Amino acid sequence: MKTIIILFSSLAFILSANSASAPDPVLDFAGKIIRAGDKYYVLPTVGKVDFGGLVLKVGNNSCSDGIARSSADDNGLSLSFTPVNNKKGVIRVSTDVNIKFPDFTGCKESNVWKLTYEKFMKQYAVVLGGVEGNPGQETLYNWFKIAKTSDGYKFVFCPSVCSSCKVKCSDIGLVTDEDGVPRLALNDDPYTFNFYGVTG
């Protein structure tokens, strides 16, 4: 009987330890869990609501030069997320995810986000053309994290998909490019936002 009790206690300890180690789920503005494959709008946190959601900046020589903040009072394009473990349906804080514009198919590039060096901005910025899945060194710049802030969330580039890779972690904020457009790029001043589920 003692053996059974000890085994049961050990199993309970393991289960509780595993559940305690799981990061918190990311929540939308209504308090609902963000789930893989569902669609969400990303809108600025209270105090920054004078601008809209995220859109594509259309360039002269290509379909898109990157991810920008809308200058209009609108929701922008919806986003969806794919976790590094595609068997997990819940998106969790500070874990690797792919981000994409699921309804956008207007460019030859994929609709998955990636980080790339923009010579005109002289820094790394978020653009389309990433690869979904296949975590590792080859796809290092396609992975982002969602971190909690005091009033919402922020995007962070700090991938954990390659244990041998040296990565300099950074927040993602808004940087004005050569055309005066505020774009998502590595920045010490993060762009903070909340998620809103797409209905209908």
TrEMBL record:
Keywords: Signal. The keyword Lyase does not apply. Residues 1-19 form the signal peptide. Transmembrane segments: none annotated. SMART domains: STI (SM00452). GO terms for molecular function: endopeptidase inhibitor activity. InterPro entries: Kunitz_inhibitor_STI-like_sf (IPR011065), Prot_inh_Kunz-lg (IPR002160). SUPFAM superfamilies: STI-like. It comes from the Eukaryota. Belongs to the protease inhibitor I3 (leguminous Kunitz-type inhibitor) family. This is Miraculin. It comes from Tagetes erecta (African marigold).
